[in-house]
């Protein structure tokens, strides 16, 4: 099956800093989504982004499908951004999302 | 329009008991996905169901686990004779159509603890 690798595994920031999270995948995909799992365990869908660039407030994401990677940008980070960020992809032959292992983000005040 | 609803939120079982986890999809959604998250790990696909049909169960353990999505009522993930290794968060998600060509929304999960 498809492999999804996220980097870095852990990231610690001071409030106000910017960051870039990366997701590499091993095969062609139909779709790619970014999720934020907050400290209470809730999964929040941030972006559906099989290709191109999208922005939502301080967050933006870019997927370059031909080069098999996606980036999630967080600007002016806040303590409420803390949690785990997951990238998930759907293989062209599949009908389910395969998740990466996540990036654990801690934003300190 | 309520989101994906899962219950119970927390479930405690002793080894050997049965666990039944419920998932009510979003209104109008007829496709349900179950995922398991072990501590400190990502989400692992378990099963994909459509009303009254199992479409893909390639992620389900071969024994003790079963899932259903009846014509009426919620989807049920059933774990028989639970063991400590079954302790995990179980999430479900739903979609209105075949394929995942839009955002997938998850429920709040059921945290299963096996004593």
Structure keywords:
heterodimer, A: 109 residues, mainly beta, six-stranded mixed beta sheet, five-stranded antiparallel beta sheet, 61% strand, B: 115 residues, seven-stranded mixed beta sheet, four-stranded antiparallel beta sheet, 11 strands, 49% strand, globular
Helix content of chain A: under 10%
Spans of chain A with pLDDT under 50 lasting ≥5 residues? Answer: none
The secondary-structure class of chain B comes to mainly beta
* CA-based gyration radius of chain A: 13 Å
- In round numbers, the mean pLDDT of chain A is 94
Report the portion of residues of chain A in β strands: over 45%
Radius of gyration of chain B (CA) equals: 13 Å
- Write the element-wise H/E pattern of chain B from the N-terminal end onward: EEEEEEEEEEE
Low-pLDDT segments of chain B = none
State the shape of chain A.
Answer: globular
Through-space gap between termini of chain A: 40 Å
Query: Which pair has the most extensive contact?
Result: A-B, 21 and 25 residues
- The SSE order of chain A reads EEEEEEEEEEE
Main sheet attributes: strand count, strand direction, barrel closure of chain A: 6 strands, mixed
Range of strand content of chain B: over 45%
Distance between the termini of chain B: 36 Å
